[in-house]
What we know:
By secondary structure, the protein is of the alpha+beta class.
Amino acid sequence: MDQISIEHIPPTAAEYLALRQIAGLSAMSKEGAEIGLPNSLFAVCLRNGDALVGMGRVIGDGGCFFQVVDIAVHPDVQGRGYGKLIMSEIMKYLREHVPARGLVSLLADVPADRLYSQFGFTYTSPKSEGMWWRQGEDGLK
């Protein structure tokens, strides 16, 4: 592996938006990033020097519900185990902070679902199906 450092603080909004874009995740607004990132329950950033090369966060209410979001690795360093490293850091946090019966969820893009299954995540279907609503995509205000 490269000289990778691990930080448990959220990235800056600019870094976050840039890594999401280059890693192929959906676009978010600068306004949303500036509000959301400081409200993370937990964040992990992988850096090569000053450059952000990977990230992941946990969001939620801190008691009953937790969601793993923003798992991203820069394409130039994918395939080096960084996704697994990010998830290992997140799982350490979850094992220490999620109370009994707390629910941790995530939305998994294929083929990333294979990574998450290695950490014990299972599909909710057929008991339930993931659903979402995104501001501005349905014509509702």
